[in-house]
Design goal:
With about 260 residues, the protein is α/β, with parallel strands linked by helices. The chain has two domains: about 140 residues, Response regulator (Rossmann fold), CATH 3.40.50; about 100 residues, LytTr DNA-binding domain (OB fold (Dihydrolipoamide Acetyltransferase, E2P)). The chain contains seven helices and 15 strands. The strands form four sheets. A five-stranded parallel sheet has the order 2-1-3-4-5, sandwiched between helices. Helix 2 runs parallel beside helix 3 and helix 3 runs antiparallel to helix 6. The protein is elongated and about 70 Å long.
Length: about 260
């Protein structure tokens, strides 16, 4: 194993923006780490892993060719494996049952810093590359297959690209509570932040999964599982309140039919 100042890593993800985001976040939290290869699928990851022999391999779970778990089976004997996944917490229980490192996408700087600190400690202590990971990977595959972790529906928008100053922020559609547009911009509201994008609401309505986002007004799309209740205000308007958040959104008359059974 190389000394800490010369450690190397590979990033494998079939979405280029996600590779870019992880590379940028790694540069910020672990500037000494050298990225020696990037792969767009599992087959490339195995080939580049054999060629460059990185100390660490960051692998997306869902990739064409070979998925991340299948690629890890061929890489774990020489590289520390870290999975990146867009699965929710229910599915992540599978990871907690083993000694596997994982990052939830979109990768946060705080979570990545914790993972990198753990990797540094393991490598500096000359700990072996994850022992018995072969058995863990087999168990993980079985757990994921039986926990309903289906691949997101093909063709639907999964990531929103928002400009924040000079940086590009990747926002998962799973984080979005609602979209609200005016003449120039569309507001993207998450539980903790607000972003502005130039994509129109009409474009978003065509690209988002209609089972996940409902149009409640000509200017508003809302995440269905964020809806708490709908009630009339003093002016007779239907107002939607989000579960656990202080936002109120108007429901137009043309869309009140969506809530007849709520």
């Amino acid at each position: 194993m190389m000394n800490d100042g010369a450690l190397t890593a590979m990033i494998a993800d079939d979405e280029a923006p996600m590779r870019d985001l992880l590379r940028a976040r790694l540069a910020a939290v672990w500037p000494e780490l050298r990225i020696v290869a990037e792969a767009a699928n599992g087959v490339e990851a195995v080939a580049l892993g054999e060629q460059h022999k990185p100390d660490i391999a960051f692998l997306d779970i869902r990739m064409p060719g070979l998925n991340g778990i299948e690629a890890a089976r061929q890489l774990y004997q020489r590289s520390h494996i870290v999975f990146a996944t867009a699965y929710d917490q229910y599915a992540l229980d599978a990871f907690e049952q083993g000694a596997l490192d994982y990052l939830l996408k979109p990768v946060s700087a705080e979570r990545l810093a914790t993972t990198c600190a753990r990797l540094r400690s393991r490598i500096q202590a000359h700990s072996p590359v994850q022992p018995d990971i072969g058995q863990q990977l087999a168990k993980l595959t079985s757990l994921l297959e039986h926990k309903g972790t289906e691949k997101p529906k093909a063709g639907y928008l999964r990531w929103i690209q928002a400009q924040v100053g000079a940086s590009l922020r990747m926002v998962s559609t799973r984080e979005v509570l609602f979209f609200q547009s005016d003449e120039k911009y569309t507001r993207v509201q998450t539980a903790s932040a607000e972003f502005l994008i130039r994509k129109t609401l009409k474009e978003l309505a065509e690209e988002l999964d209609p089972d996940e986002f409902w149009r409640i007004h000509r200017s508003t799309l809302v995440r269905v599982d964020a809806i708490g209740e709908v009630a009339r205000d003093l002016r007779g308007r239907h107002m939607l309140r989000l579960r656990g958040h202080p936002f109120e959104l108007e429901v137009s008359r043309n869309h009140t039919y969506l809530f007849q059974q709520m």
